[in-house]
């Protein structure tokens, strides 16, 4: 199943949750999702993506949607397509009842009370900074007429939102204390992804960068190159982590 098949059903559930549980008007829900008010009406009446919405409910995706909309409402702003795709992949996992994880490892958060309090304070401060920065960059981007420059500033804003999400996740983990479960990815799958990520670099961006007529366009390409390096670093770290865990398990 593809995300494009699931997203309309997710939109239907999100619209219903925003209007009925959070009290948004149809116009407000439309703005958050980037759709028209008539489309919101069709989703609410079950005349658009009704069958997919029912399937998602049966498979337990409603909890995912409620957590998603709670986060959107708390953070404010609009729902981006990358966020919808991320939600769609989680929903597809529920529908197809498949997992790509190898095994589960249990870890215990071990912090003294004073350390935990200090860490939470720092995380909250950083969370607030990132949220404020995201709002400010979005405000700046909305006033720019040049599309390339607007995209660059929006990228910074989206990174700030992502950073705020990370801070929130870390706060939740620290506040929970005690035992934490970690899904360890399958090493073979990660190796495959890492190999593919490296192969992408073969088709480098140097020629594109050389031919582009403006430095602003080059800066956009540089952002892609930086992301590719980051993806490779993340995958390498996950592979190493999974291998160390596997060795530790065999040695015990």
- The helicity comes to over 70%
Main β sheet profile: 2 strands, antiparallel
Morphology call? globular
Query: Quaternary status of these chains?
Result: single chain
Q: Write down the Rg.
A: 21 Å
Count of individual beta strands = 2
Beta-strand fraction estimate: 5-15%
The number of helical elements comes to 11
Total individual domains: 3
Identify the strand order in the major beta sheet. 1-2
Determine the mean pLDDT. 84
Helix/strand layout:
Layout lengths: L2 H19 L4 H8 L3 H8 L5 H9 L2 H15 L5 H16 L4 E8 L4 H30 L4 H30 L2 E7 L1 H16 L3 H6 L3 H37 L1
Antiparallel strand pairs: 1-2
Helix pairs in contact: 1-2, 1-4, 1-5, 1-6, 2-3, 5-6, 7-8, 8-11, 9-11
Description:
The protein is mainly alpha-helical and 252 residues long. Helix content is 77%, strand content 6%. The chain is built from eleven helices and two strands, in the order ααααααβααβααα. The protein has a two-stranded antiparallel ribbon with strand order 1-2. Helix 1 packs across helix 6, helix 7 runs antiparallel to helix 8 and helix 8 runs parallel beside helix 11. The longest helix has 37 residues. The chain starts with a helix and ends with a helix.
Structure summary:
Helices cover 77% and strands 6% of the residues.
What brief labels describe this structure?
6% strand; 252 residues; mainly alpha; single chain; two-stranded antiparallel ribbon
């Amino acid at each position: 199943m593809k995300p494009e098949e699931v997203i309309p059903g997710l939109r239907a559930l999100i619209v219903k949750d925003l209007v009925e549980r959070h009290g948004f008007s149809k116009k407000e829900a439309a703005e958050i999702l980037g759709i028209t008010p008539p489309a919101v009406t069709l989703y609410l009446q079950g005349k658009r993506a009704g069958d997919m919405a029912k399937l998602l409910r049966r498979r337990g995706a409603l909890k995912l949607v409620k957590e998603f909309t709670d986060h959107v409402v708390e953070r404010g702003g609009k729902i981006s397509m990358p966020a919808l795709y991320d939600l769609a992949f989680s929903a597809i996992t529920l529908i197809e009842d498949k997992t790509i994880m190898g095994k589960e490892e249990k870890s215990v958060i071990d912090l003294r009370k004073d350390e935990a309090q200090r860490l939470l304070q720092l995380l909250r401060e950083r969370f607030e900074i990132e949220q404020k920065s995201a709002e400010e960059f979005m405000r700046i981007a909305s006033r720019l007429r040049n599309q390339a420059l607007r995209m660059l500033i929006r990228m910074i804003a989206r990174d700030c939102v992502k950073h705020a999400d990370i801070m929130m996740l870390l706060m939740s983990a620290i506040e929970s204390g005690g035992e934490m479960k970690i899904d360890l990815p399958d090493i073979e799958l990660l190796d495959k992804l890492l190999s593919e990520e490296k192969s992408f670099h073969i088709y480098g961006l140097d020629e594109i960068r050389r031919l582009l007529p403006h430095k602003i366009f080059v800066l956009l390409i540089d952002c892609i190159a930086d992301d590719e390096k980051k993806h490779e670093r993340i995958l390498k770290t996950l592979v190493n982590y999974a291998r160390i865990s596997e060795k530790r398990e065999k040695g015990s």
